[in-house]
Amino acid sequence: MQNAIIEKMGTPTMVINGGVGGTSIQQHLPDPNNRLNLSTIYGSWLYRVIQSGSKDRIRWLFWYQGESNSGADDYTALFDQLRNAWLEDLPNLQHIVVVQIRPGCGGDGHQKLRDSQRKLEDRHPEVVVHAAAGLPFHDGCHYSADGYFTLGEQLFNLYRITELSLMPGKYASSPTIATANCIDAQCTRIRLTFNRAAQLRMTPDMSIGGSMRTARDAFFANDDPTIQPTNVTVTNDAVELTFASPISRISYVPDKFYVGTEVIYEGPWLVNADGVGAITFHNVEVELRQSLKTGLRMGRMMGLRMATM
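Now predict its structure.
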């Protein structure tokens, strides 16, 4: 990403790395009694920021973390603490890019943690969320150099479009769910619409762990990974799912494994025309469309009238 910025935009940049592998978000919080405690990750990073003379000039921060936390952690509250510290110590910070993690090694309950990450951009005006879901060359825990290169290209594109004001408002490239509605009165057929989602598609079926994996493996209902759709149809900015029985909540991408296996989920993925993965989500409420609500209300009223005649 940094090479692309200088080569394609001619902009000199400096990166100060505050990442440490295998760490929880709690380990990145500042010492409340000594911000510059060099024995902490935050203190060591902040010391280097100050010594570089860039404290008042840093405008972008990239955060890719979460594998070492679990769904039991209050990730939102912990992130808010860290964000507040960043904004206090970096007075010119304008953009925070959160890379939402994907299934892999680490803690349990990651479907809930990923959903907390998904919601951060609605919570904070300077935050955008980018999905690691769909990135290639993943070994179940890490990426090869080509996988990291792909992520760098995607983040560079996000940076370039934002810096050059090529799109209005806050720009992000990963498609994200906008609505989930029943198509029929029984709610066995649902329609999901997405923002930032021109020309959505599912990546091809593939053989993983000795079985053919299809788009049906990517979705499940009612917080039960075994309740998968019988059919998946993707058209432009929407996905239509059919289930064998009524559903009330919908999720995209399981916690870690394909159902009934210990094989890490590696696709198929929902991606946009550029191959950027959609942000995963968990337990999104499925709502009746207004026309269905009106029809059901009228049906009940007609039934009442007939009963009182």
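Helices lie at 2-9, 41-51, 75-89, 110-118, 120-123, 145-163, 290-308.
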